[in-house]
Design goal:
RmlD-like-bd; Rossmann fold; binds NADP nicotinamide-adenine-dinucleotide phosphate; about 290 residues; two-stranded parallel sheet; single chain; 9 helices; NADP; dTDP-4-dehydrorhamnose reductase; NAD(P)-bd_dom_sf; oxidoreductase
Length: about 290
Amino acid sequence: MKILVTGSNGQLGSELKLLSALYRQFDFTFIDVEEVNLAEEVSIRAYFADKHFDFLIHCAAYTAVDKAEEEVALAYAINAGAVKTLAEICLEKKIRLIHISTDYVFDGEANQPITETVQPNPVSVYGKSKLEGEHHVLSILSNAYVIRTAWVYSSFGKNFVKSIRHLASQREMLGVVCDQIGTPTYAYDLASALLQIVDAIHRGQADEPGVYHFTNEGVTSWYDFAYFLVQESGLNCRIQPISTAQYKTAAVRPKFSLLDKSKIKATFAVQIPHWSESLKICIDKLNQGA
Ligand SMILES: NC(=O)c1ccc[n+]([C@@H]2O[C@H](COP(=O)([O-])OP(=O)(O)OC[C@H]3O[C@@H](n4cnc5c(N)ncnc54)[C@H](OP(=O)(O)O)[C@@H]3O)[C@@H](O)[C@H]2O)c1
C-alpha cells in the first residue's frame, strides 16, 4: 500500500518519516516544497499526473500564524487552495485523504473541552484559511479524515519548546503567557496515532471518516508548559506569568482551545500520553542532541 506524506521537512512530517521504519508493510513517499510547491496548482497537478497512492497524509501547511496576517493570499493559497486541488485529485484517483487541521479554527470562547460538533469561528487569517481547507476536504470527499491538533512541538523543526529552551539558556527571566489554555501535542504521538489510523483502515478494523481531535492528554497554559519545560531541562531561568495583553502578537489566538479527544480514542482505540510525559521524552531527545 502506497502512502504519500507532504510537509516531510516539518515537525509532523519528520516524525512520520522516523516512524515509517516501523511500518515496513507500507510503501512511503515523503515530499516537501522541493518536489511540489503547494502555492502553485500546476505544480501539484504535475506531480500527481503519473503517480498513484492509496493514502495521502497532508501535513504541509502555511504555519506562520502571525505572518499570515500580512501574507493573506499565500496563506489561503497553501491552506485552502492547495487543499481543494489535493481533494479533487484524491477524488479522481481514489486516494484516501488524511488532512491535518488546527484548534485555531475555534474562537477560544468555549469553557469546556471542544468536541468535533462545536461550530468553528476562527479569529485569525491562519485559522480562517485552515477552516476553508477543511470545508474543501469535507465537501469534495465523503471518505476523508480531518484531524485537528494544537500546540505542536517536536525535536524536529521550529517550535515553542525549542525556542523557550534556547531563550532560557541565555536569560535570567522569561515572561510567558498564562491566560491561554490548551494542551500541547508531541508530534511523535500524533504521527503514531495517524499511522495507527491508516493501519486500522487498511486492515478493515475501523473506518469512520470525518473530523477528529487529537492532542496529548491533560490541560495547561503556555506559562505552566514553559515552567515545566525549564525545570525538566535543568535550566536556571525564572518563568514569569504574563497576560496575553502584555504580549502583543499580530494574530489573535484563542484563549481556550482544549480539544476533546473522546471520538478518536473510541473509534481507533488510540492510547494518548499525558503532555508532561511526552514533553519529558522530547526533552531527553533534545538533551541527546537529536
Ligand atoms: N505547529 C503547530 O503548532 C500546529 C498546531 C495546530 C495544527 N497544526 C497543523 O499541523 C500540520 C503540521 O504542522 P507542523 O507543525 O508539522 O508544520 P511545520 O513544521 O511548519 O511544517 C510545515 C511543512 O509545510 C511545508 N510547506 C510550507 N509551504 C509549502 C509550500 N508552498 N509547498 C510545499 N510545502 C510547503 C514546509 O516546508 P518548508 O519548511 O520547507 O517551508 C514544512 O515542511 C499543519 O497542517 C498545521 O497547520 C500545527
